[in-house]
Amino acid sequence: MTSRLALLLALLTAPLTVLAGPWTKTIWQGEKAYAARSDSGNWVAIVSLERGRLVHLGATKDAADNLILATASKDDRLGWGGHRAWLGPQKDWAGGWPPPAAWEASGARGAFMRDREILLLTPPPTGVDGWPDLSRGYYWRGDSLQCAVAVRGPVKRDVQIVQIIQVPTDATIEVDVTPTKDAPQGYIQLPSYFREDYRYEFEPPAHVDYAADFAARAFRYIEGEPEKFGFKNRPITVRRNGVSLTMSRGDTLGSTVVDQPDHGYNTQVFFGGREAFVEIEQLSPLLRQTGSQFRSFSIELTPRRDR
After folding, report:
1. Is the peptide bond before 98 cis (omega within 30 degrees of 0)?
2. Per UniProt, which keywords does this protein have (predicted)?
3. CATH code of the domain made up of 3-168+243-305
4. Degrees, nearest 5: CA angle 152-158-161
């Protein structure tokens, strides 16, 4: 048993308590929260205890500087926004959409400071067939915010860890792509509520802007036109109002890869149709789970001012 797993298991029944550390108490949109500055002091991250997740990343605590989208109210039909995290594959959810409330609509059951990291523990996903509960961890490494999602507790099934950041619909999404024989565009169209199959060959939809060298492409939201794209494991950059935010894949720890859902196109961009949203996503491979061993998958969020 790793020391980190021991810490998480010890906190399962602990009350909401955060010890001293770089994360300091604050109030975000009327919710109890903690904030921490990047090493340079140029960026601030805020996690809401009442939403159990990262809700703000920007130059200041002002909502106008937020690079990610978090809904003003927890009653919003788009959900709670910010850093969404759940387990998959989604096709294995017994009840279909939405995700279990423990993952998507529950505050932190417990919180703890460990060195520079704040750990937020979710409630167990009661009534969910064989799925373990998870935790979120955040800490600054330089000017890059590390976001780790860990599986904890007894495990009865293989799992995929899904990390999603919601961003404003007026942002431009940039992903470097490399055309291949199987995917001539360098990316594929993924199944969703509006499409049942995977598409490898297609005319580029209106969401896509070609770069001059045809090596990189920009993607944008179009009202009323849903779309979901998949890329082979790579960074995604969001640009808006002279600032960029890059989501990069981090480490996958403590498990054996048994499959690659979505045919290995684990970097994804999702544009809503009926509802206005943009999500950038990084998905782990399908990981074999045994006993109570610690498993985690991390992403890195790096904000920059565009020159």
Report:
1. yes
2. Signal
3. 2.70.98
4. 60
pLDDT one-digit tens code per residue, 223-242: 999 999 999 999 999 999 99
* Ranges of H-type helices in 19-106: 101-104
* Residue 167: CA count within 13 A, CB half-sphere: 30
Q: Which pairs with CB-CB distance under 8 Å and at least 24 residues apart come from 93-98?
A: 94/128, 94/129, 97/193
Q: How far apart are CA 149 and CA 249, in angstroms?
A: 12
Rounded CA separation 281/299 (Å): 10
CA-based R_g, the chain, Å: 19
pLDDT at 291 over 70: no
Mean pLDDT of 31-50: 96
Classify residue 127 as left (phi > 0), alpha (psi -120 to 50) or beta. left
- Please say whether the beta carbons of 133 and 125 come within 8 A: yes
pLDDT score of 213? 60
Q: How far apart are CA 133 and CA 170, in angstroms?
A: 34
pTM of the full predicted structure?
0.91
Complete DSSP assignment for 193-211: TTB-S-BSS-PPPTTEEE-
Contact (CB, 8 A) for 99 and 163:
no
Q: For residue 43, what is the DSSP state?
A: -
Is the model's pLDDT at 38 over the cut of 70?
yes
pLDDT of residue 8: 43
